[in-house]
Amino acid sequence: MLRRVRQSLRQVLFLMARRPDLLCGAIVLGVLLVLAVKFTCSRAKNVVAAARPPVRFFSPDAPVVDLYLGQLDQVERLRSVAEVSFIFFYAPWCAHSMAARQEVQQVAKKLAKQVQFVAVNCWWSQGKCRRQNRFYHYPVIHLFYRRFGPIEYRGPFLAPYIESFVLRVITPLTYLPSRGHVEEFLSYHEPRVVGFFQFNSSPQPPGYITFLSSALQVLKRDFRGVVRFGVVTNKQVAGAISLTEDETVFLHRRFNSSLIFPRNDLNFTSEAICRWVFENRETVLQWLQPPGTKSRLLEEELTKGPALLLFVPHDPLGSQPSPALQQVADIAVRYHSCDNSHHSSWDKSFSFHSLCCQSVVLPQSSTSVCEVCLSLSWPSFATSPLHCLFPPSIQGGDIFQTYLRRCCLHQLPSPVSINSATAMGCSNFLDSYSPFSQYSACCRKVEPQLNESQAKEESEMQSVPPSLIPPFSVPQPEGDGITGLRCQTNRTLRFYVLDVALNWPLAVRLGASGNRSASLEQEDDRGGDGSFAAIVNLKDEVHYVLQHTPAATLTESLEAFIRNFSAPYSLLQRHLVGEEDRKGAEEEASRSDEHTQSPPRFLITELTTSSFLPSVMDLQKDVLLFYYTQWCGFCSVLNHIIIQLARLLQGNGTITVARVNVARNDLPWEFMVDHVPSILFFPRYRKHLSVKFPDNLPITLPNLLRFILQHSGSLHHVHKPSVETEGPGHSPFLGSEFLTLQREVQALHHARERLSQQLAQLWRDNRRLKFEARALETENAELQRERRSLEEQHREKSRQLSEAVRRLQELADASENLLNENTLLRVLLRALTDRTEAREQAEVERKETEQKRSHLAS
Questions:
Q1: How many Cα atoms within 13 Å fall on the side-chain side of residue 567?
Q2: What are the tens digits of pLDDT across the range 49-59?
């Protein structure tokens, strides 16, 4: 191969040596080619315009240091001299950054004296911020407390929420100077952590700095600051919660024993304290804040079990929670407060007990309420803090239930032998030998309280064999029906709270009124505050909406709502959510003219959740219903066939072609289908004999027409007695009379619906007029205040004008006097000038005379 290359080069060189002109031409051609490539590349570089230099993002009057060139070095310098720093990373083109800019400016104007606000353009390609940081979204807010940080803010970009988070960072600890402050601090439903530190030895003990860092560490995981940290410096005040040792961290819990941070087992670091708090805290009410983007936050919470979603108004800057939130928190606390009369784990005097109890969730088929307790009998228990920790092998749910089945579930008496309201069986077991600890399990079956009639039925049931008795009994609520309900039912609810102002679209999707202002007006009329509640059971694919009653308060309505859901045979009705009926006026007109059999205005009737049953169950019409979704490709292919069918049947007033979007409209279970597209036919007069289009037939126009003609209802189907109704007591006359009565009843139903709609419209008009009159009265009062203000301003201006005129007159008089005096002075000055000149002239003449005399004398 190399030989061939060498031979080729020799031949080329030999030819160039023999023909020098060929060599010169090749050189010139190569130079031209290089110049052409260079010129083309140079032009290509000039096609891309240089990026425009960035400009200020914040207004000059805002107390925000705007580093629009991405100077990250200046951020470090400003942060090093400030107690608390607020860093706002933005992109100038980002719409979210532009929206958050106004909110940040409002917060900066309020807290500029306490916080250093800095904004950094992290999109400028030549800036240091872009080179060192890789943000996947904008804007990003970081807060620094001295050298601790960054604490990223993950909440909504609204001024009240941002300001609340900044205030949490400024004061992460709450000082508790007295026992009253400690009791008030621990009285809220949120988790509370108290640290006891004595400041006698040093200004800031090392443990205090770690405790402060742990409070800031918690804010990284929870931007709302639900877990609050308090600090006690007085030993007598610390004795209210049985704290005796210095540098002790106390976690307050309502339903189980409160805990003390185990410094002997865990490192005393901020990360360890934060992790310990989140692992052992009790949460009865959890805040949810969907980010508004693609997220599985809501799904992850709803898959844990039935959830009570409460949409309440919330003010992040309020010193006290809203009344609605206080009522919800009280209900949640009472719901989780199980009856621990045998082994109580909480004492109002903040003293510890020697029992640690934990409830066990049993299978749904059981009505047993079981509780496992750890009995401690340490000799030094009175002086040592209680460490209520179950072994890992016991905390597992399967092992827990295994112990319960082995020790005490078999000891429960059968329901037949129960004479009292409850039956209890207890047993003791040992997980491992210990001379100071022992486990005990107590289970009880809750039976209903029977009245006289039920007691008679119960006595009759005594003769029934035990195998025929149901394995469960209906629990009867005790007291108010909410306290301890969590441990009396297997349909346990999780309580979630959402800000109604931020999550109103989700509330609308669950069944709230679509118009927020209209909903607030209705709540004001009922005396409410605009809250909304719904129970979502993702496993059963159902949800229920709380229906407020005018005479009931929010607490009463919620308690009844929870009790009805927790009952084994719930009275709650599944709530169906559908699209807003955009053709309401046309359908209302068609319903009003149904008795005249007028032809429909539209080829295909679009049904929603509200209009489904009235249209499909109309006895006077055959209804062909087409089930579809917007994402189904096969449904789109069949649209032209359905349209052709509707055109063919347009002149027939007894057949309606309708369709329903099952992805956006919830339907009763009995009307749902297992796949789309599906076609159902509801014949008139025989709605109970609805027929589904066969799956093995292709959906074509001839097949659909043959299907309709085969199953359509007519009068001869009604007058002709069927096999089931044939007999001596049936006749065609009775059938026709029955049809006439059905038509009259249906006409009365339609008249009642129209009357109720008219009354509702009149009520809405009356409400609207009342609000307009109230608005006009407010405007009139405002105009009256403005008129009085203008009159006062007019009088003040008149007085000021009179004063100015008087002063001008005084100035004019003074000016005239000055002119007269000036004239007199001029006359006197002139006279003095003339006299002086005369004296000077006489003096000159005298001197000249003396000179002449002396000259003559000489």
A1: 13
A2: 777 888 899 98
